[in-house]
Specification:
Length: about 450
């Protein structure tokens, strides 16, 4: 038995992985090294990292500067609780820095360890806010099909990918879903309106159906990520903001993927000219070098937190909120993004990526290419005229993933859609290589 085989056997004997079943884990990749947009496995094979690991290694792999910052902070003070009455320098500095980058009306931040905790924090904060405002019946949340917001129990209940639900039901009550705006497949029930407005109006219908006095918030990714990389129509979010204002519903922007430069802007809703009431983030804030997430809240929400009576305080907490080392790494990560102009680079190379992929739409089974910044999806269909999906028996998702990997690109394929979100530092030559590999892999399916 080889050393690699022994490691895999040990893995199978002791590790439970995310989304786990051993049938899909008999020959896992053992990753050992990464540099920029390239990762290496234990056998010495190299691959382009087509998804920045899990949408998060924005500045690329192997950044010694981030390791050094973590080391220096750990030597001085690795961690101390930030429960009320204590704080630390990196947490203070990071909150101030994010306030300079994010939406103007958001200036107060609570830190978590990741995206799921951030969703939980948004949900609890919205309920808290409406109780403070004398509207305690506003406890429900509306989100969208194909949306992903995490898999803790409440976050899973907001997530609109149904495969996550069955084995953990019943879901938390008070969560309902509307259809995604999904421009490629959205069927407009009111043709006199634009598709974007019609899709947004599904939110108004849901609010009225549930009762406006019961709805606390609407949770949405600016661009749906795990559900297939789905940018909405350009006029979608403007109408969403109007509806939320009309019915006193908090707009929660899930920026876990779209934050910190991924779409060619610091945050995703900047593309649509609106601001949320709560913005939740994680992933790119540290480029995955250490776990960190958080939420930013509007000035109105922070005022509610600050002015409530002590006995009604915002009684929410995590042990690692404002983790000293994590916040120090985040500051250094943001400094790299700024210094190297990676937000603009994401816009420019994202345009190159999407333009290259759009040339593949001439292929017989490429139904739709979509994206924004360094975030793209290539959807395959059995019939381009009808947009009919391949039958499950065709096993396109697994076959296509294998073809991509054989050609040196490691990424995810979901529902016959190639998901792409390479590191923001990916070079033009690597972008072109990604496009070439995707095209060759699709052609190899026959």
């Amino acid at each position: 038995m080889t050393a690699e085989s022994k490691l895999i056997q040990s893995d199978l004997a002791h590790l439970i992985h995310p989304l786990y079943h051993p049938s899909g884990h008999q020959s896992p990749k053992i990753w050992v090294e990464g540099t920029g947009a390239v990762i290496k496995d234990i056998e010495g094979n190299t691959y382009l990292d087509g998804l920045s690991s899990l949408w998060n290694v924005n500045v690329g792999h192997g950044r010694e500067e981030l390791a050094q910052v973590a080391y220096n902070q750990m030597k001085q003070l690795a961690y101390y609780s930030t429960y009320t009455g204590s704080t630390n320098l990196p947490a203070i500095q990071l909150a101030e820095k994010i306030s300079q980058l994010i939406y103007p009306s958001i200036n107060h931040f609570f830190f978590t360890s990741g995206g799921g905790e951030s969703t939980e924090s948004s949900i609890k904060t919205a309920r808290f806010y409406w109780k403070v405002k004398g509207k305690p019946e506003k406890v429900k949340f509306i989100s969208r099909m194909r949306g992903y917001h995490g898999v803790t129990l409440a976050a899973m209940s907001a997530t609109g990918l149904t495969a996550y639900w069955p084995m953990f039901e019943p879901r938390v009550p008070g969560f309902v879903h509307i259809e995604s705006p999904y421009p490629y497949r959205f069927v407009n029930p009111t043709p006199e309106l634009s598709d974007g407005v019609a899709a947004a109006n599904l939110l108004e219908e849901a609010i009225l159906r549930e009762g406006p006095e019961t709805v606390a918030g609407f949770i949405a990714e600016p661009i749906q990520g795990a559900g297939g990389v789905i940018p909405p129509q350009d006029d979608y979010f403007k109408r969403i903001r109007e509806i939320c204002d009309q019915y006193e519903v908090l707009l929660i922007s899930d920026e876990v993927i779209t934050g910190f430069g991924r779409t060619g802007r610091w945050f995703g809703l900047e593309h649509y000219g609106i601001e949320p009431d709560i913005a939740q983030f994680a992933k790119g804030i540290t480029s995955g070098y250490i776990p960190l997430g958080g939420i930013g809240v509007s000035d109105a929400i922070s005022e509610a937190i600050n002015t409530v009576a002590p006995e009604k305080r915002w009684m929410h907490a995590f042990t690692y909120s404002g983790h000293t080392t994590a916040c120090a790494v985040a500051l250094a990560n943001i400094a790299i993004i700024e210094r190297e102009g990676l937000v603009q680079h994401a816009e420019e190379q994202g345009a190159r990526l999407i333009a290259g992929l759009q040339e593949l739409e001439e292929m017989p089974h490429v139904g739709n290419v979509r994206g924004k910044g360094l975030m793209a999806g290539v959807e395959l269909v059995a019939d381009k005229a009808t947009k009919e999906l391949f039958p499950a028996s065709a096993n396109i998702t697994v076959r296509l993933g294998n073809e991509l990997m054989q050609r040196g690109l490691f990424t995810r394929v979901f529902n016959d859609t190639v998901l792409l979100a390479p590191p923001l530092c990916t070079t033009p030559e690597q972008i072109d290589q990604i496009v070439q590999i995707v095209g060759e892999s699709i052609a190899a399916l026959g």
